[in-house]
């Protein structure tokens, strides 16, 4: 499985495209808002001959959902989120203009993810792990075969997701990291929603919020 990261919007949000040798592809947290950002995403998919099969959100804060409608309309896929984050998604239109995203186009989910689900595309499988705290319905996607986690805003390189947004909870986030992520092997690479990748082992050792 190849992991491609495209960084979009003023929040410097990491959008991920996962694909394998079959060219089947999933798009996770499309943050593309401006026309040139959407074109960059589309161009990568076209240049690599990929077939977008699924659209997934780790969680539904504005910076992670700006491109949902574009991806859904362009590639004829439905949006998949955890049910607990639908309230977060539905609130985005009320505050999007305040952040300068007056042209935000809402897209509601067509199906829901839950803990333990397996997401299949091509020859690849991702396991859904429920990891709330930063957002009430936050999930991460774990590829056990290649020891990779697409982690959204739960765990960053030597940092953690903020919990001062509506419906965030610090203690829940810490519990999610310790019981859901830190139980994975140390060599697992975490691809976060912002900033560079890290590993579980590195964060166990050096993350100041978790020692």
UniProtKB/TrEMBL annotation:
This is MBL fold metallo-hydrolase. Keywords: Hydrolase, Metal-binding, Zinc. GO terms for molecular function: hydrolase activity; metal ion binding. SMART domains: Lactamase_B. Residues 12-194 form the Metallo-beta-lactamase domain. Its cofactor is Zn(2+). The keyword Hydrolase applies. InterPro entries: MBL_Glyoxalase_II (IPR051453), Metallo-B-lactamas (IPR001279), RibonucZ/Hydroxyglut_hydro (IPR036866).
């Amino acid at each position: 499985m190849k992991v491609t990261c495209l960084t979009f919007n003023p929040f410097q949000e990491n959008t991920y495209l996962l694909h394998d040798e079959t060219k089947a592809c999933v798009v996770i947290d499309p943050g593309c808002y401006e026309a040139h950002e959407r074109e960059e995403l589309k161009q990568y998919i076209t240049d690599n001959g990929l077939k977008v099969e699924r659209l997934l959100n780790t969680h539904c804060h504005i910076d992670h959902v700006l491109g949902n409608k574009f991806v859904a309309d362009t590639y004829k896929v439905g949006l998949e989120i955890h049910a607990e984050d639908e309230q977060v998604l539905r609130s985005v239109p009320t505050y999007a203009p305040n952040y300068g995203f007056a042209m935000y186009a809402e897209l509601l989910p067509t199906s829901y993810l839950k803990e333990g689900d397996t997401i299949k595309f091509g020859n690849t499988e991702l396991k859904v792990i429920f990891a709330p705290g930063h957002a009430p319905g936050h999930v991460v996607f774990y590829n056990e075969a290649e020891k990779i986690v697409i982690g959204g805003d739960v765990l960053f390189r030597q940092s953690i997701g903020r919990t001062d947004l509506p419906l965030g909870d610090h203690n829940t986030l810490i519990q999610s990291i310790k019981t859901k992520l830190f139980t994975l092997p140390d060599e697992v690479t975490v691809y976060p929603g912002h900033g560079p990748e890290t590993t579980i082992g590195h964060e166990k050792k050096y993350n100041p919020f978790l020692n």
